[in-house]
Amino acid sequence: MSSSPEMSWLSVFPIVAIISLVAGVGILVYLRFFYVDLPPIEGIPEVPNGELLAGHFYKLGSDHATTAETWAQKYGWPVFQVRMGKRRAVILNSFDSAREWTVKNQSATLDRPWFYTFHGIISATSGRELAGLFLMSDSAATIGTSPWDERTKKQRRVVGSFTTGPSMRDMRPMLDLETCAMVSAIYYDSAKGDVELSPHIYQKRLALNLMTMFCYGTRFASIKDPLLGQILSDANTIASFRSTKANPQDFIPHLRYMGGNARNQTAMEVRKRRDTWLSTMLENIRGNLPMNLGSKKMNVAEMLLTDSQEGLTQMDIKTILGGLMSGGFETIFSTVIITIGMLSTPAGQAMQQKAYDDIMSVYESPEEAFEQCLNEEKSPYIAGLVKEALRFYPPLKLLPARQTYKEFIYQGAVIPKGLLLYVNAQAANRDKSVYGPDAEEFHPERWLEGGADVPPPYHFAFGAGARMCTAVNFSNRMLYAIFLRLIVAFKIEASKTMPANTHYINYKEDAAASNAVASDFRIRLTPRDKQTLEKCFERSEELSEGATSSQYSEPLKR
Ligand code: HEM
Ligand SMILES: *[C@@H]1O[C@H](CO)[C@@H](O)[C@H](O)[C@H]1NC(C)=O
Ligand SMILES: *[C@@H]1O[C@H](CO)[C@@H](O)[C@H](O)[C@H]1NC(C)=O
Ligand SMILES: *[C@@H]1O[C@H](CO)[C@@H](O)[C@H](O)[C@H]1NC(C)=O
Predict the structure, then answer these.
(1) What's the predicted TM-score (pTM) here?
(2) Candidate from 462, 480, 514 with most ligand 1 atoms within 8 A of CB, to mutate
(3) Is the previous residue joined to 457 through a cis bond, with omega within 30 degrees of 0?
(4) Entry's Gene3D superfamilies (predicted)?
């Protein structure tokens, strides 16, 4: 007779038990000592209740910046550590800590992490050419996410050289053309103020044109251009895949091997399409090069393609241009659109009046203001409005991840090399100990009165220190010119039926997107003086002649 099932189970039980025990202990030891990249940092509090594998990744919810801000308040910890899957990370939620780490200790915090999603694609497709395509199309591989090395330094130098004062002077006709085209399109499309409109598309086209002109010397002459629509919708989709939240496999390794988390088909398709239009723009430049050689280089692509001095590879060029396009377009657009929303509110009416009075006190006439705003930032109120917009509505709430480059000491705690680091700009920019009790209010005047007390970088919308945005001055000038031209041209009021949501968290269309875009709204624009405004347009048209070839020009509507 064979033994009963119970018998044989009993006989193998000790072996199974021992094997499971050893395996269990092994897994526990692995998770405890080897899974996480760095041991807990002594002296920096850790948010409780991290999950075994995911750590705090899913606890951060869909809006990471807001959750982190809530934790900082709940526990009273401006600086805390969490676990993003297998990576230990520190999140900085106060102005002083962000400044201490990224400015005072900038040499120790200037690296960026290198994420799996990016590596995974390269190794999966191999082949240099394909890698190049993805590099260009995947923002995870653009300059804003590159580790600190010679290539990154070179790229920062090149981009920086295009956003200096003299370069901005050279670009003046182009900047004039774009900002005027935005105001005039709104003016005529609203039937000179008779009909309400949604300002989004005008600001999107403006921001995109600024970047395509800056990078490739091309632009979209109409908001109805189908390619413009395609690019904008693709950019939107890409943004939804870019946030930390959309990429758990970067932090939780076992997800990489589970089918559901393979690269999303939609993302792949959109990125391919984007490659095509970015390549087309680059090829157009290359095709025109012999003609343009010798003349002044007016855009980044031209300079990169002809300048052998910096010794850039083809890959560098694609990386720089892809990074610029995504880095510049969405940030400028989202800052402008929510500020227009804020100006249109009842509280915004007083701001517009103060702004207009201030403009008129520093410029001789509306015409002069309209013309000069591209050359210097003379109105303190408008400059304050720019700072306040970036403080209160930073387009990137949790800044692009950094990584420590060497060990340093922060308030007695030893901060190791290789640590993942996030600055929570949403929280740091509303730090009451720096901005005062009214930190939760949108108040441009703060930069006129006591504002001088806030030390640089004034707010963290551009980051800070050695990896700060390379286009700070350029962006500030653009925002200044855009706000000034709008305020000189119009009184802006909210639509009765579709006013803007201006709450600092709830205004976003998609809380999980890496870039904060305001939900749709409508406004009513009343021209301050139609004749003066039309004169401004004509003058601007004269001054921006030659900014672009006839192929891309935009005759003024009348
Ligand atoms: C309102 C407009 C903008 C905002 C709020 C903004 C914000 C930022 C932020 C937060 C970073 C990361 C900084 C850090 O880690 O400390 C960054 C990096 C960068 N930005 Fe901007 N940006 C803006 C416009 C632009 C424009 C127009 C360009 C190009 C013309 C640009 C080019 C770059 C580049 C190249 C980097 C990467 C720097 C590096 O990693 O070394 N940005 N930006
Ligand atoms: C970090 O900042 C502190 C305070 O400013 C300074 O004493 C220290 O030398 C810095 N360390 C590094 C590595 O930058
Ligand atoms: C990819 O993601 C998009 C947007 O999140 C979703 O609508 C779509 O169903 C996903 N597709 C696949 C194949 O997972
Ligand atoms: C911006 O302008 C200021 C003052 O003119 C200058 O000190 C600074 O270096 C500029 N920053 C960049 C990133 O070009």
Answers:
(1) 0.89
(2) 462
(3) yes
(4) Cytochrome P450 (1.10.630.10)
Distance between alpha carbon 531 and the CA centroid of its chain, in Å? Answer: 38
Ligand nearest to the CA of 162: 1
Burial class (CB in 10 A: 0-12, 13-18, 19+), 415: buried
**Ligand 1 centre distance from Cα of residue 260 (Å):** 33
Each residue's pLDDT tens digit, 169-215: 888 888 999 999 999 999 999 999 999 999 999 999 899 888 888 88
Cβ-count burial of 476 within 10 angstroms (0-12 exposed, 13-18 middle, 19+ buried)?
middle
Ligand 3 centroid, distance to 513 Cα (angstroms):
15
**Cα angle 254, 259, 263; round to 5:** 95
What is the distance in angstroms between the CA of the first residue and the CA of the last residue of the chain?
103
Structure tokens at 456: 């640089």
Cα–Cα distances (Å) from 70 to 59, 75, 104, 402, 432, in that order, read 12, 9, 26, 22, 15
Give me ligand 3 centre to Cα 267, in Å.
8
Residue 45 lies in a domain: no
Residue 271 Cα to ligand 2 middle (Å):
41
Q: Per residue in 532-546, pLDDT tens?
A: 999 999 999 989 887
Helix (H) or strand (E) holding 524: strand 523-527
Q: What's the number of domains the chain is made of?
A: 2
**Listed residue (45, 112, 69) closest to 465, CA to CA:** 112
Instruction: Write out the residue range of the structural domain in which residue 27 sits.
Output: 1-34
* C-beta neighbour count of 11 within 10 angstroms: 10
Say yes or no: CB of residue 473 within 6 Å of ligand 4: yes
* Residue bearing the CA closest to ligand 4, atom 2: 473
Count of residues in the chain: 558
State whether the beta carbon of 323 lies less than 6 angstroms from ligand 1: yes
Q: Which of 6-10, 45-49, 544-548 has the lowest average pLDDT?
A: 6-10
**Beta bridge pairs of residue 111:** 403
CA dist 467 and 450 (Å) reads 28
Residue 359 belongs to some domain of the structure: yes
Per the annotation, does 536 bind a ligand?
A: no
- Let me know: does 85 contact 251? Beta carbons within 8 Å: yes
- The residue whose CA has the least distance to atom 13 of ligand 2 is 408
The closest of 462, 454, 461 to 438, measured between CA atoms, is 454
Does 505 reside within a domain?
yes
Q: What b/e readout covers 233-250, taking b as 16+ CB neighbours within 10 angstroms? A: ebbbbbbbbbbbbbbbbb
Pairing of the two strands 420-423 and 87-92: parallel
Name residue 51's beta-bridge partners: 55
* 496 domain residue, yes or no: yes
- How far apart CA 482 and CA 480 sit, in angstroms, is 6
Cβ(232)–Cβ(238) under 8 Å?
no
> Which residue minimizes the CA distance to atom 43 of ligand 1?
469
Centroid of ligand 1 to alpha carbon of 376 (angstroms): 21
